[in-house]
Structure formats: C-alpha cells, structure tokens
Amino acid sequence: MTEKNQQTPDHEDVGLYQKLAGQANEFLHGGRKNIEEALKKAGEEVSARGEYTREQIDKISGYVRRDLNEAAKKAQEAGDSVFSVVDPRRVTAGLQSGIAKVLGNAAAFFNELAGKSEQVLEVKTGEVTSPGTLTCKECGSQMHFKSAVKVPPCPQCHKTVFRKSY
After folding, report:
1. Is the pTM of this model over 0.70?
2. pLDDT reported for residue 3
3. For residues 20 and 152, what is the distance between their CA atoms, to the nearest angstrom?
4. Nearest-CA neighbor of 19 among 55, 44, 36?
5. Distance of alpha carbon 79 from alpha carbon 83, whole angstroms
6. Is the pLDDT of residue 2 over 80?
7. For residue 162, which phi and psi values (nearest 5 degrees)?
8. Which residues have C-beta within 8 Å of that of residue 50, sequence separation ≥ 6?
C-alpha cells in the first residue's frame, strides 16, 4: 500500500488545504491580482501533479477561499478600527499642537537667552568699558571708542544705559 492510500481522508484534506493555501499565498505575494486567480492557479498546479482529484481540489479550495476571505475581512475591519481611532485630522492636530508647544518653549528659551545676552552687553554711565561701540538704548545714538574709557552719558538724550557692540 502506498503512503497516499494509508492517509485518512481527513489527513488528506488537511494536507491538500495546506498545499493550496501555501501555493495561493505564493501567487498572491508574487503579484497575482486576487484570491480567485491565485486559488485557480494553485489548484491547477496541484492537479497537474496528479495527487488529488479535481473534485477534492475544488472542495478544499472552497475552504481556503472562505478562510482567506475571512482573514481579509478581519484585516479590513482592523484597518478601519485603527483608522477610526487614528483619524488623520486628529493626528495632524496633535502634531500641530506638539510643534506649537515645542516652538513656544524654544521661543521662551531664546527670549530668555537674548535677555541674558543683552544684560551682559549692557553698559551704564560711570562704568569702565573696553574699545567698541556703545548704542544708547533710549535714542539709538552711537559712541565709538578706540580705547578703554569711563562711559559718559548719551550726548543726544543724556540717558545712561547702552548696548555694547564690537
């Protein structure tokens, strides 16, 4: 007795199912357009080997088709579920909100840094400063010094706070 004859019908059906499903999967991943076409091609190849009758192949192909369609349906439902939870408009709004927070924090940081830098560059009447240019913070008038000096009041508005530049 051959191995084929020793198999139970249930075991034979399971083997055929696995062959058809595997072959159909290869065809689907190989660029076949749909399940029907992939199953038809898989059935033709299994039939050509002469291991199973056309009736067996058609019967088991129905099971594979059913299971593949159900898997596709479940995948579509899962995709729809994810899409409903992860609505692109919500994601976009969330990203915009996140970017706005980051930019707001960055702006606050840079404003603080600019303020500290401005304080470092601030010079007042009566202090001694190195060569460079002093710009009056009140009227914008500039005083240019080529050597260290004791800072005088602004010659234009007589205010006492300047910004140092080099």
Report:
1. no
2. 47
3. 96
4. 44
5. 6
6. no
7. -130, 160
8. none
